[in-house]
Amino acid sequence: MKFFVDTADTAEIRDLAESGLVDGVTTNPSLIHKSGRKFLEVVAEICSITSGPVSAEVVALDHETMMKEAEILRKIADNVAIKVPLTIDGLKTCKALTDDGTMVNVTLCFSANQALLAAKAGASFISPFVGRHDDNGFDGMQLISDIRLIYDNYAFDTEILVASVRHPVHVLESARIGADVMTAPPAVIRQLVKHPLTDKGIEGFLADWAKTGQTIG
What we know:
Elements: E1 2-6, H1 10-17, E2 24-26, H2 29-35, H3 39-49, E3 54-57, H4 63-74, E4 80-85, H5 88-99, E5 103-109, H6 112-120, E6 125-128, H7 130-135, H8 140-154, E7 159-162, H9 168-177, E8 181-184, H10 186-191, H11 196-212
Parallel strand pairs: 1-2, 1-8, 2-3, 3-4, 4-5, 5-6, 6-7, 7-8
């Protein structure tokens, strides 16, 4: 499973990239707003940190303007993936861009039918929002399972990019189902390494080492 980082904090991306955990990055207007920086500047810096896909979202709602915005965004770097909403105009934009060789991430997916449409439009990635799905009384993991089944039935190339990941269990279940990618905030990715028995083991080793009175180097 590929790990994308869902943030516009370039310091966090750099730090996680040093651990080998960054296969790509997702951003959105809300994350850019939190950074307090200029959108194009942030995307360009992120693209310089990772060679993996960097999702940059259009803000227009009509196809024509989406294409104009996408033209600006894809000139930033070769690894930019244009993020478009799952609407008819978004799907039209997805089709046009993928036919032209540009990666496209179709976002705000909340049903398997929507995911089917995105795959037929040639999406590189489909982003089902599991956390928001759960928040509204639905089963986010069942959505991932349904999309996996449909994509496998027809050998679609579109990668399932699990988004709105809230906790490590979302990551575990997505991996068990066979999702291609998950994107999560840095804090959730850091939680994956945590386990009380690991911490206890380290404490024990350090206590025993201190008793030896030795140092390394």
